[in-house]
Structure formats: C-alpha cells, structure tokens
Amino acid sequence: MKFSREQFEKLVARGIDAISERFLRELENVVIVVEDEPTDVQLKSLGIGDDEFLFGLYEGVSALEGGHYHRGMPDKITLFHLEIEDAAETEADLTEIVTDTVWHEIAHHLGLDEHEVRAAERRRDEACRRGGRGRLGV
C-alpha cells in the first residue's frame, strides 16, 4: 500500500483534527511537516538503529521550557511518510500510526519526555478500552 505525499498529508491533517482542542491550543509557533524519512544525523542523534522505525520527531523548545514565549523560528514536528507507511499493513494501521504519532510529538512539545509520553499513551489507551474519552482526548 503506497500513499502519495498529498494523500499522506491528508491523513496527517485528520490526525491533527483527532487531537483534543485543549492540546491543540498549546501549539502556538509549531509547524507540522511531512518528510519521506529521517536523516542519518537525526537517527544517529537519537540512537535509532537500522532495524528500528522513527515515525515522528519533535524539535524545539517545549512549553515547559518556555516554548510559549519563544518567538524565533517555530518548533517543528516532522512525520516520516515512508517509515510510517512501511510499518503499516492496512490503511487503518496507517491512519492509527499517523494519529498516534501526531499525539506523541505534541506531547513532547508540551514537555513530556519519552518515558512520560509512553505512560500517558498507556493511560489513554486504557481509558479508551474502559469506554472513556476518545483515544486522543485523554
């Protein structure tokens, strides 16, 4: 299954729309972009090996570190089209990975480190299983 850049960007837009408004309000001075794949420098700086995927990357100053007051270059969330597409078996998988990746990177912008993001994802998924709020509104 291959998606054009335009089709993939539409999935990203839907992923953004699935995020709770309370989180979207925090995205001041943040751009969300799509690239085909991460650079070697990005992979190396994160310690990502050849057998691992990097679906998204947040680069900037988190809200906890004063990101709301930073008025220089915008922070950047990058989603990696080919990495996500390679990991997805179905269109539903692709949509879920895109949406989860958008949420994950926004959480980094809000100041959560990787451990905290993973814990928040577990709580979000558990709330969904219990019939709570929508997956990305927790």
What would your notes on this structure say?
By secondary structure, the protein is mostly helical. The protein has one domain (5-129): Zincin-like (2-Layer Sandwich). The protein has 6 helices and 3 strands; from the N terminus they run H-H-E-H-E-E-H-H-H. The chain has helices at residues 5-17, 21-24, 40-46, 81-87, 91-109, 114-129, and strands at 30-35, 56-59, 75-80. The chain has a 3-stranded mixed β-sheet with strand order 1-3-2. Helix 1 (5-17) packs across helix 5 (91-109). It is globular and about 40 Å long. The chain starts with a helix and ends in a 9-residue tail after the last helix.
Fill in the keyword field for this structure.
three-stranded mixed beta sheet, mainly alpha, about 140 residues, Zincin-like
Beta-strand residue fraction: 5-15%
CATH C-level class is: Alpha Beta
Note the gap between the termini.
31 Å
CATH architecture: 2-Layer Sandwich
Largest sheet: 3 strands, mixed
Low-confidence stretches: 133-138
CATH third-level topology:
Zincin-like
Helix content: 40-55%
Number of individual domains: 1
What count of helical segments does DSSP give? 6
How many β-strand stretches? 3
List the strand order in the largest sheet.
1-3-2
**Element string (H = helix, E = strand):** HHEHEEHHH
Query: What is the CA-atom radius of gyration, in angstroms?
Result: 15 Å
How confident overall, as mean pLDDT? 83
